[in-house]
Amino acid sequence: MATSSTNVLVARACAASVLALGLVTLLGWSLGLTWLLQLRPGWTPMVVNTALGFVLSGASVWAAASASIPVRRLAVVGGVLLLALAVAEFCVLVFDLAPAWSLPQLHRPLQPGYPHPGRMAPNTTLCFLLAGAGLIGATGSGRPSAVHWVQRAATAVIAIGLLGVVGYALQLEYLYGWTGVVRMALTTGFGMIVLGVGLWNAVPTRADKASITDGDEVAAVNRTASLLLLLVAASAGIGGFAFLQGQVEQQVREELLQLSVAHSGTFAEIIGLRSARAQLVSTDPELASRMRTLARSADADGSLNLLRRWAINPQANGFSIISVRQQGRTLLLAGKPLPASTQVPVRTPWPATLLWKNGFVLRREVPVSDAVGALGVLISEQRLDALTALDARTNRLGESGEMAVCAVQAAHSEQMICFPLRSRRQPYRSARVLDGMPLPMDFALRGRTGSIIALDYRRHRVLAAYAPVGDTGLGLVVKRDVAEIYAPIRVQFQRIVLFLSALLAIGMLVLRRRLRPLLHTLEATRAQARENAVRFGAAVESNLDAFFILECVRDADGTASDLRYALLNGKAERLLGQNRERVVGKRLFDPFPDQRDAQMLVAFLRVIETGEPLIEERCGISAIGEPRWYHLQVVRLGDGLGVTVRDITRARAAAERVRHQALHDVLTGLPNRAAFEQAAAAAIIEAQKHGGTLALALLDLDGFKHVNDTLGHAAGDVLLQQVAVRLRDCLRPSDILARLGGDEFVLVLPAINWPAGAIAVANKLIAQIALPIVIDQDTVRVTASIGLSVFPDDGRVAATLLHSADQAMYRAKRAGRNGYALHQNDLHQNDPQRTD
Question: I want to staple 1 with a disulfide (CB 3.0 to 4.6 A). Which of 37, 204, 235, 666 is the partner?
């Protein structure tokens, strides 16, 4: 086994990415560059230990993908160190430790919502644990069991990384109330996915595809199909669940925010109204009169009774306690004093104090005066039963819903004093910041309105809506535990997980049953296809003809513009004079650009367009520059062509020789009777087309038989050959000379002046033949008798013209030979002397 080059490239690219991610994160922490640590404000940043783990795992994966054994052993060291880091972080989580190496003070500004900043997330720790174990196995000998283990570990790392990314949609720590659990950073999730891919590709795999069995491929397809089914089901379930989760959270958030704003407004309004009522009562003239009387009168009891009778009316209007302070003494006029659990000053146009006496009570101390001067102070308390009832109703919101009302003890104080809650039945004091993170009440006390998921004073994760109570200096928070809000979703989530798990199990079983026969059938088909391909290749290579397969090259608009070589056999290589490796992929005329033939390309492309095969013989130049004749057969193959080329140069030459022998006299090389008839017919047609004349001369040797009888047939043959040469020398290029047989020759004289031109030719021929001929030291003399006929007067076809010339020729012989005669004309002799 070996790691393929593609796998090495992928593994090293992933290793470099993970290593860079870790180094960039360490740089961000060391320089305090927040934008390098958080993709968005408020998102969980990657902690320092996680960045160190990425640096270590990236370097180890790079080493594991190396071909050098010593370098691969470094990956084992890196895997052990990564394993040790993961185990240490697991101990921190399990035993709830706060080690110094987590650097909590460094991480606290960007992790204010966590009680232990700097801790590694549990799923991140698990990923590094698996990656460390995988790195140790990735450097093994490539045994199938080790490879499968590493691939399973890599798959688990990828899956956990995906869940970490998806966790931002699921918010599992909210769903199950894992208050102390650190969420995996989004960058960590993506880094784990890349790390898993790199680890998968770093292991040795089968480099020889032929060694991969059918069972391996079937199992791989099954795994792939199961994975796709899992991804589809998980995506659908997670997407639907995340949407439901977001809708529920948004609805509860809006509900709590509406309650906080409404309740804070109610608090501010009631406190303002009751404070104004106390102010109004203090301006009653009767109160001032009776307090003046009490200050002057010696009868203090009588004056005090008058004040008490006056106080009956305010008490009936909702005042629980009414008293006055005059001359250093406090006199109770109405009501029964009760001890206050807590008291908080509130800012109103007239200073007041909010008390808790088994309910909200507003206390006012208002100066009383008349025209003469100050008389004392009116002290009043009013029970705010509406606010107490409102607080009670809000504290009955679900199982954890409660309303908190607090105020700061003093200006700029970090402590606040709060009225009783559902979970805390007595007033209490609390810090405004918990573990470096402001509590929701702190936002309200600073005059802000909104909602947040954060930790409360109990360190429970809550969804809190906050708002200031007008300008009173009080803050109001309505909150519910996140675990309670998500409880219905948690039940649905668990049901969905169970349903999807059962559905996936059934789907995988059905998929396995359905796919297995299909895959076996596919494998059998592939085996048959491979066998057919081997047969096809053998047939192509054993073909005596050159064979090409050409692919169509189309323009952007789909128009066929050229052809590209896709396959050729050995015969085709020899025809082109180039190796197939240099030809395959090139366009039609690229191997021989000097022989580019546009018409040939058009003809080939027409076969693709019409589907009609092309069969033709074509002359071309061979690879060594010789002219050759080829037989082409071109048929369409899909969007291409199958071209068979046969060299027919020899066959064509042989056929030409046969044709020549069939149409020519063997002895003289002149055309024979058949060739004469074809040529004469063509000449007659040409004469008809242009309205011209055509003469035909039939020539017979005088005394030829005597030569044969005296000198032999061999001498007669030589004589005929010499006569043929002399006759040929007397003719124009357009004239036709043929031997009909024996000592008869025929001439076709197209476009000749009749009769003068024909007579001149006849005389010339007679004169040339009459010259002596030497045969084997013997001098031979022969003469010729010629008969002339003319088209169209003496006939319109070759046979008629020949018959007419024959009649004229015999007239010439009867007239004494060595002369010529015109058909139906008087005998003419070129010389009065006779040679016979």
Answer: 204
User: Under DSSP, is residue 37 helix (H, G, I), strand (E, B) or coil?
Assistant: coil
CA distance 570 to 579: 9
Chain position carrying tokens 């909104």 = 450
344, 407 Cβ separation under 8 angstroms: yes
Beta strands (DSSP E) in 409-503 are 415-418, 428-431, 433-434, 437-438, 450-455, 461-469, 474-481
Cβ count within 10 A of residue 122 = 18
pTM beyond cutoff 0.90? no
Cα→Cα distances 480→255, 411, 542, Å: 11, 29, 85
Q: Are the C-beta atoms of residues 139 and 64 closer than 8 Å to each other?
A: yes
Place of tokens 């007008």: 470
Q: Please, what sign has the CA dihedral across residues 630, 633, 636, 637?
A: negative
Instruction: Work out the number of other CB atoms within 10 angstroms of the CB of residue 109.
Output: 12
Count CB-CB contacts under 10 A for residue 632: 18
Cβ atoms within 10 A of the Cβ of 55, count? Answer: 19
Measured between alpha carbons, how far is 548 from 573 in angstroms, rounded to an integer?
Answer: 10
Handedness of CA 667, 668, 669, 675 (dihedral sign): negative
To 5 degrees, how large is the angle CA 207–CA 210–CA 213? 105
The closest of 137, 122, 166, 161 to 14, measured between CA atoms, is 161
Between CA 281 and CA 551 the distance in angstroms is 105
What is the rounded CA–CA span in Å between residue 726 and residue 303?
Answer: 179
530-564: burial string, b at 16+ Cβ within 10 Å, e else:
eeeeeeeeeebeeeebbbbbbbbbeeeeeebebbb
What is each CA distance from 34 to 31, 45, 118, 183, 611, in whole angstroms?
9, 9, 15, 18, 68
Name the phi and psi angles at 127, rounded to 5.
Answer: -60, -45
Please state, in angstroms and rounded to a whole number, the distance separating the CA atoms of residues 590 and 578.
12
Report how far residue 783's alpha carbon sits from residue 711's, in angstroms, rounded to the nearest whole number. Answer: 17
> 189-226, pLDDT tens digit by residue?
899 999 999 988 887 654 444 444 555 566 666 666 66
Residue 598: count other Cβ atoms within 10 Å of its Cβ.
8
Rounded Cα gap, residues 678 and 671, in angstroms:
10
Nearest to 85 by CA among 17, 34, 152, 135: 135
DSSP 85-148: HHHHHHHHHHTT---GGG-HHHHGGG-TT-SSTTPPPHHHHHHHHHHHHHHHHHTS---HHHHH
Quick check: 86 and 153 in contact, CB under 8 A?
no
Residue type at position 556: A
3-state helix, strand, coil in the chain (%, to 5): 55, 20, 25
Per the CB < 8 A criterion, the answer to whether 321 and 332 are in contact is yes
Residue (of 586, 455, 504, 477) closest to 178 by Cα position = 455
Helix (H) or strand (E) segment spanning residue 340: none
> Whose CA is closest to 268, among 470, 530, 48?
470
| Distance separating alpha carbons of residues 27 and 9, to the nearest angstrom | 27
pLDDT tens-digit profile of 777-827? 888 889 999 999 999 889 999 999 999 999 999 999 998 889 999 987 444
Q: How far apart are the first and last CA of the chain?
A: 105
Calculate the average pLDDT of the chain. 83
What percentage of the chain exceeds 90 in pLDDT? 26
CA distances from 569 to 54, 475, 643, 669, 763 (A): 54, 90, 11, 43, 65
Q: 472, 348 in Cβ contact below 8 A?
A: yes
Write the burial class of residue 289 (CB in 10 Å: 0-12 exposed, 13-18 middle, 19+ buried): middle
Distance CA 67, CA 476 (A): 66
The C-alpha atoms of residue 631 and residue 539 are separated, in whole angstroms, by: 20
Residue 325 pairs in a beta bridge with 330, 377
